[in-house]
Amino acid sequence: xLSVHEAGLNARSxxxxxxxxxxxxxxxxxxxxxxxLSKVWRALEVSPAETTEFLDKAAEAxxxxxxxxxxxxxxxxxxxxxxAIRKILNEREKMLEKLLDTRxxxxxxxxRNFLEGKLKGEIQQMDASLRQLIxxxxxxxxxxFMFQGKSYLEKVEADEVxxx
Length: 164
Description:
The chain has 164 residues and is mainly alpha-helical.
C-alpha cells in the first residue's frame, strides 16, 4: 500500500487533490482545523513520525473532503484532551520533584514538615484530577493514555506508595 508521500499527495494541505475547487467553505473550515491541529501537535511536541503516521492513515481512510475534515477534527479534540492532561501531569512532576528536594534539604524540621504537607496536598489534588481525566480520555478516544511509554495512572499509584 502506498503512503501519502509515495503517492505524491500532500494530505497536510487543503490544496491537495482531495479538495475540490468548488467547495471553498469546506476548504476554509478544513484549513482552520488543520491549523488548530498543528498548534496542538507543536504544544505536545508530537514526533514527526507520529504526525506522518496520522496523516497517512487519514488520507487512506477518507478520500473525500468532509470525511477527511472529520478525521482531523477528531484528532484535534483528542490531542486537546491529551494536552489538558499533560499540563496537570507536568505540574505534578514538578511538585513531586520539589517534594523530594524538600525532604532532602537541611534545615528547620517544622518548616520542612509544613512545606511537605502543602506539596503532598497539591499533588493529591492533581492525582484526583488525573484519576478522573485519564479514564475519561481513554474511554472517549479508545486509546490508553501513555507517558514515557508507560501508563501514567500506574505511575501515580507507585508514587503514592513511595512518596505520599
